[in-house]
Structure formats: structure tokens, C-alpha cells
Design brief:
Elements lengths: L1 H8 L2 E9 L2 E12 L3 H9 L1 H7 L3 E3 L6 E4 L4 E8 L3 E5 L13 E9 L5 E10 L5 H4 L2 H20 L5 H4 L3 H20 L4 H15 L7
Antiparallel strand pairs: 1-2, 2-8, 3-4, 4-5, 5-6, 6-7, 7-8
Pfam family, one: AHSA1
Family: Belongs to the AHA1 family.
InterPro entries: ASHA1/2-like_C (IPR013538), START-like_dom_sf (IPR023393)
């Protein structure tokens, strides 16, 4: 359990603001270090075979200006690609998402560290007013990204994928997810969120990801 909680503590989380083609947006931001060189981390987030082992299987025209689709339905276009430092994509989900272009983007920045390690910064911007935020707050996407960045950590360490569905049924997985939801609540408060709304969002997020768990 300690290793899992150390993984959770390895990430720094915050909320911010951005401007998308569709207008004002809020951001969920994660920053953490990986004990792997920057070229290896870049390959893990861009090579289709390796990407599918820690995120989700991906198909499409994977080049600048091309499009992609993940096995879970997330899809978009590759907007910016500067190996091995920067990847930015549009990020849409759901059958009606294409009617609202410019409403969601994910950007990943990599920086080489002094000891041959890599700092990864992930920023997911979503248009203000998107329907999930009032209920779940930043945890709607933040918990999912916490789980994926945990999977990336394990994959870089030993090459093994993390079964997300199985992990979330295990005691350590339930605790990791519950604490992730609470951590995003803290980031929401730090960004000026209303305490009552934040508490409600953390409870809803926890109930969604870990049914039967008390968020308090």
C-alpha cells in the first residue's frame, strides 16, 4: 500500500485557466517525475504499441495534423508535436462531441532532469460550462489521469501494463482512487472553489469511481 500512496504523492495537482478556440476553459494540471530518460518517456506516449499498454489501444493517422481514436472512444486531432518535448491534441469524447470542436485539449510537456530522469507535465483544458464539472469538479478527468500516470510509471519501470478495471477492485486500488478524488478536491479548493460544491464533487467522484466507498 505504501508504494501506491507514494505514487499518489509523487504528482502535484492544480487547477488553472486557459483559452480554447471555443472560449474560456478551466484546466486540470499534473506534474511528476519518472525515473526514465526523456526519449524513452516520449516513445512511451507516442508509439502506438507502447501507448496502448498503459493508456488505451489507439488507431488513426498518428502524425502532426492527423487524427487518433482510443479504444474507449476518446478521439481528436494532433495539433502540435515537437519531439521529445511537446505533444498537444484535441480531446473529445462521446457521440455528440464532434458538434463542439475546440472545447477540450490535452497537452503533455517533457523536460529532462539532471539525473537522467524526466519531468512530465500534463494539462487538460476543458471549456467552462462542460456538463461534467458541476457534478464532479476536476476529479471527473483528474482521477482518470492519476490512474493513467500510475500505469505509465509501472510500465516504464517493468514494461508491464496495469489492468485499470482489476486495479480499481483491489483494496490498494480503491484507496488510491479515493485519495485521488480527495486530492483533486484540495486542488479545487486552492483554486477558489466553493467548499460545499467541492465536498459534493469529491463525494460524487468517489462514488462514481469507487462505488460503496465513503468519501469523507
Amino acid at each position: 500500500m505504501k508504494d501506491i500512496l507514494d505514487e499518489l504523492a509523487a504528482a502535484r495537482r492544480k487547477m488553472g485557466a486557459a483559452t480554447l478556440p471555443a472560449g474560456d476553459a478551466y484546466t486540470i494540471e499534473l506534474r511528476r517525475r519518472y525515473d526514465a530518460p526523456v526519449d524513452d518517456v516520449w516513445n512511451a506516449i507516442t508509439d502506438p504499441e507502447r501507448l496502448g499498454r498503459w493508456l488505451k489501444p489507439v488507431t488513426g493517422d498518428l502524425r502532426l495534423g492527423g487524427s487518433f481514436e482510443l479504444d474507449g472512444g476518446e478521439h481528436g486531432e494532433i495539433l502540435q508535436c515537437d519531439p521529445p518535448r511537446l505533444l498537444r491534441v484535441s480531446w473529445l469524447f462521446g457521440p455528440d462531441a464532434d458538434e463542439w470542436p475546440g472545447t477540450s485539449e490535452v497537452e503533455v510537456r517533457l523536460s529532462p532532469g539532471p539525473a537522467g530522469d524526466t519531468e512530465l507535465e500534463l494539462v487538460h483544458a476543458a471549456a467552462v460550462g462542460e456538463p461534467m464539472f458541476p457534478t464532479y469538479g476536476p476529479g471527473a478527468g483528474g482521477v482518470g489521469w492519476d490512474l493513467h500516470l500510475l500505469a505509465l510509471s509501472r510500465f516504464l519501470a517493468d514494461g508491464e501494463p496495469l489492468d485499470h478495471e482489476e486495479f480499481r477492485t483491489l483494496p490498494e486500488g480503491r484507496e488510491f482512487t479515493r485519495r485521488s478524488a480527495a486530492a483533486w478536491g484540495e486542488a479545487h479548493l486552492a483554486a477558489g472553489g466553493d467548499p460545499d460544491q467541492v465536498a459534493s464533487a469529491v463525494e460524487a467522484t468517489t462514488a462514481f469511481y469507487v462505488p460503496g466507498t465513503n468519501a469523507r
